[in-house]
């Protein structure tokens, strides 16, 4: 065993013209690792910087950070499916179910957020956040690009005008979420949307290019017919679609209602969207895998919930 590891180490460093002994000497002096060094707890627990004195602002920041970490886990899973050389039904199904479990966590934990903060405190500290909004979560957008074909993320009103020959620039201008930050009559974009694009548009277009053929839906369509008819896989795909695009969206919407709809009067959101209409799944009809739903299910998407 010992000599086999020695041989493997030798091979590894020889392959990159490095001297194994120098590395072994480094190992001799290196200090043993601790939990806190490995998990980077000190750095992690120093990333919560409040803008106000309200304790519930801490809850708000931490919850968003937890969400971003879970989004990162989702992207790691999708990346593995996208880059898998031999995609089996089993691997596909198990990855989808795992991603769904992350979204189950995100959905059920929203009740902690909904009933977790004092409404008065929230409405005071959120004033200091304007014009920032969760709308500017880049990872959330990446999950969408990585899950389905771009056409399914285009605003319903413009789908007929976009096809495979449209440029990414043009498609980008008609993504469904432009509606939250764009006045379609004047074409003017909100500050929230403008700065988001300045920061991420280039990255999004590169990301969307890779995923245009490697997204979960395209990967599914590439499977042999028999695999595409696998009940367990179809259920996993539908479960993922439903969890992300109805359950999470509704948990989020209900939370917004809790804080921003007081006594039937809706407050303006920090990102400035017409959120009551924009956020409800029945208006957006975001569906990652449309072929896996019946016509009636699509018509009733988000209606009776
Ligand atoms: C008190 C908690 C929350 C409230 C009241 C809230 C409210 C809102 C509102 C009103 C919008 C519409 C855009 C705007 O005008 O700002 C929005 C968008 C968004 N928020 Fe939240 N949010 C909350 C928590 C979160 C959390 C924890 C996340 C996770 C990162 C998140 C992610 C998003 C995303 C991704 C969008 C864009 C959704 C889309 O385009 O359909 N939000 N939020």
TrEMBL record:
Domain of life assignment: Bacteria
Signal peptide: none
InterPro entries on file: Trp/Indoleamine_2_3_dOase-like (IPR037217), Trp_2_3_dOase (IPR004981)
Name by which UniProt lists this protein: Tryptophan 2,3-dioxygenase
